[in-house]
Amino acid sequence: MKRIGFLSFGHYQPVPGSAARTAADALRQTVELAEAAEELGVDGAYVRVHHFARQQAAPFPVLAAMAARTSRIEIGTGVIDMRYENPLYMAEEAAQVDLLSGGRLQLGVSRGSPEPALDGPAAFGHVPRPGEDGGALARRHLAEFRAAVSGVGVAESNPRMTGRSFRLPVMPQSPGLGERVWWGSGTRETARWVGEQGMNLMSSTLLTEDTGIPFDELQAEQIGIYRAAFAAAGHGFTPRVSVSRSVIPITNDLDEAYFGRERGSADQVGSLGEPGLARFGKTYAGEPDVVAEQLAKDAAVREADTLLVTVPNAVGVDYNAHLLESVVRYVKPALD
């Protein structure tokens, strides 16, 4: 059975028509939407993380609030930019949220995406070592984080306090969290690396490469490469794969007013300001049966076990609950 989750970018802006005019609005509404989604039978509530922007930034407080107000739904991120993170402090925060949630945390991490700051990680005190670039910095932080959540000792004990010398792990520990780390991949080569490393795979509505084939086929190729690499490495557990999509079943006049113009959306190819082209996935908007049929034919959606529906959080909780209800009612049955 396919899992369905929502992914919120946590936008807020004091502009006419926005239901999320402040950061406080966006945070509270994210928690409220997680509650509503759980009642609707949605399987996951995920937040995107951006720095130096009017969006969700530090995710662990809002994840803890979501954990406290729900009992079943997965809570997670898609994704945390590891260049910005203190790996050991993040390990403590993640373990505490996972324990509060009863083991429901699904932690999506990655190198991050283009952002407003020229060198945001440096402002947070994280600078690549000689010979490293931003990607290598993110992967080093990831390795330190994964070691910490696995219980490896990371600091020498003080014998005067402990009675002996040994390496102390960070505390608390949350068993199983290490198998619920996901890496956000934008290329086939990165997908292979994720499989080799033994993490779950997240793939969004953006791929940072283009081979001329449709977005869903390129993403499905990425998933196949990942699964083969994971199997060859023999990690000993069953991995998961999620893909993100913009999905708008149009069932009333408000849907039509907001998103009717998205009917007939197509893939886009463009530049992110870096070498090479990127491919952006289309929006699935239209009558529910049409959207369900189109998604059922999406090659990557068929290959993934989890579909994350990106929600337009600035239009408010009620509308997004309606949107998710339409997805659960009309689209999910076609994917199972």
Automatic annotation (TrEMBL):
Organism domain of life: Bacteria
MF-aspect GO terms: oxidoreductase activity
Key words of the record: Oxidoreductase
Gene3D superfamilies per UniProt: Luciferase-like domain
Cleaved signal peptide residues: none
InterPro entries attached to this UniProt entry: Bact_Lucif_Oxidored, Luciferase-like_dom, Luciferase-like_sf
EC number: 1.-.-.-
Enzyme class: oxidoreductase
Domain Luciferase-like residues, every copy: 10-248
This protein's name: LLM class flavin-dependent oxidoreductase
UniProt key word Transmembrane helix: no
Manganese as UniProt keyword: no
A Pfam family: Bac_luciferase
Entries under PANTHER family matching the protein: BLL6902 PROTEIN, LUCIFERASE-LIKE MONOOXYGENASE
